[in-house]
Amino acid sequence: MKKSKVSIVLALLLAFALVLSACTQEGDTEPAATDDTAVDTPAGDDGENPPAEGGLTGEITVQAEEGWMEYYQAAVDRVIANNPDAKITLIESGAFDMLDVIDNTGVTNPDVADVFAIPADRIYGLSENDALAAVDSTKLAAEIGGWDNFDDGIGGNFNVDGEYLAFPYNIETLIVFANTANAEAAGVDMTNAVEVNDIQTPNEVLLPLFDTWYGVAVANAAEIEFLGKNDDGSFFSDMTAEWAELPAEKQDAITAVYEYWKKHNEAGSSLFDEEAGWGYIDDAFTSGNDGVFRLGGPWETGAIQEQTNGGADMEILPISSLTVAGKPLVHWQGGWGIGLNARIEGDQEKMDLGHAVIKEIVNPEYAVDLFKATGKILENVEPDVYASSDLDETDKRVIAAVFESYEQAPARPLFSEWGQVWDTWKNAVLSWESQKPATVEDAYAQIKASFDAMMANMQ
Q1: How far is CA 441 from CA 184, 226, 234, 254, in A?
Q2: Buried-most residue among 100, 119, 239, 369 (CB within 10 A)?
Q3: Does the pLDDT value for residue 38 go beyond 80?
């Protein structure tokens, strides 16, 4: 009896299953999932809210220095507002600290961000180490706007073998600082350009010409090529020519450097001492002493304010305010870029999100805020934007001088071999302190010997 009841129940269950199966096939639909049914959801979705339509869903990290964090977080928040399913994490790190990590361990190290800032002169080294992904700079530049010719500026410097490996972040070049109190005491006229050959005292113009970064300002004025690259990839240097073979304007520039050194040597100054020279310049330029003009970078503004009575005695001028042998000093179109880590190149979501972050960091609408946070000056923003902002007057004058000096400057050579020039020029000029060359020809012989040795290593 008990067995027959079980059989009846099984038969009924089988019949029900057959009916249910037939109904499912006839309607060609699946039964609705219950709350207990597992369903796949897009990344970042909690099962209740679908991802933003057309939004990005990648996850990346972004390098930011300590002082940049607040601005960067605001930029990230703006990106996330349009892409709520994306995740962007800031890594607080100095730019050079992160580059050290890359050099020591490689870009796959998780401590290296997916998006990071790089100085322009590191672009070729990073390229050779396959550290950077290609940036769609053409598209970004068109969307951001502000360039008449993108490749004519620093953006073109980031183009390596047909690929842009960073996007413009900042322009920088050398400018001139003047101490108005010292100028008045010395009776120096600041209304016209000052010729270095005509200075009345050695300290009237303070030029750390032993440092190649500053020495190129004289070289560029006379179109001296410390190290150039021919179309066939071979290298050359104007400083390997015999003295008699140098064009007159190049001889004049070298003569001016030599005569400037000679003035300081005869005065017993320590300006041409690699260790003591910087302290000498700072002391001479301080209000109450005899330094009137000094060549420097915008990053030095804070320290120079302290030397000029809290900035009350400080004037900021374009680099062309100083001339050498009648030629205005000219530096380089230097700067920084923002690059993408090569490890994300195969992940389109990460790449798209990286581009979105770059675009927001350099958003011209926030150019003034960017400068306040980082000191970065955007190449594609009109100087008037900064001039009419709420920046203090010192910052406005610095920015104006940078723009004016930058416009006259040539592009900075970025090929990695140029790195050998730094010590080549420096060691040659510093050797004068011990060699005491009696003539400019003797002084140039030291320069030529140094560059001859450098070029021999290029072969």
Answers
A1: 37, 18, 28, 9
A2: 239
A3: no
Asked if 112 and 101 touch (Cβ cutoff 8 Å), the reply is yes
Q: Outline which parts of the chain fall under CATH 3.40.190.10.
A: 59-172+333-407, 175-331+416-458
What is the rounded radius of gyration, in angstroms, for the C-alpha atoms of the chain?
Answer: 31
Class of domain 59-172+333-407: alpha beta
Residue 303 token pair: 């320290």
Three-state DSSP class for 337? strand
Q: Tokens standing for 308? A: 């000029």
Cβ burial, residue 295 (10 Å; 0-12/13-18/19+):
buried
Higher per-residue confidence, 32 vs 410: 410
Cα distances from 165 to residues 23, 120, 159, 383, in angstroms, run 60, 10, 6, 26
* Strands 205-206, 293-296: pairing kind: parallel
Q: Residue 359's pLDDT band (boundaries 50, 70, 90)? A: very high
Closest CA to 142 of 121, 167, 160, 122: 167
Q: Which of the 8 DSSP states describes residue 85? A: T
Spatial separation of the C-alpha atoms in residues 3 and 60, rounded to whole Å: 66
User: Model confidence over 224-280: pLDDT tens digits?
Assistant: 999 999 999 999 999 999 999 999 999 999 999 999 999 999 999 999 999 999 999
Rounded to 5 degrees, what angle do the CA atoms 190, 191, 194 make? 60
Our CA dihedral for 31, 34, 38, 40, rounded to 10 degrees, sits at 70
What percentage of the chain exceeds 90 in pLDDT? Answer: 87
pLDDT at 40: 34
Residues, the chain: 459
Look at the block and give the residue holding tokens 């390596």. 160
Q: Is the separation of the CB atoms in 310 and 147 below 8 Å? A: no
Which H or E run contains 278?
Answer: helix 277-285
Is the confidence at residue 19, as pLDDT, over 80?
no
458 pLDDT tier (thresholds 50, 70, 90): confident
Confidence of residue 13 (pLDDT cuts 50, 70, 90): very low
173: which residues sit within 8 A by CB, 6+ positions away?
297, 319, 331, 332, 333, 334, 402, 405, 406, 409
Q: What is the pLDDT of residues 410-432, one digit of tens each?
A: 999 988 899 999 999 999 999 99
pLDDT for residue 46 is more than 50: no
Instruction: Please name the fold of domain 175-331+416-458.
Output: D-Maltodextrin-Binding Protein; domain 2 (3.40.190)
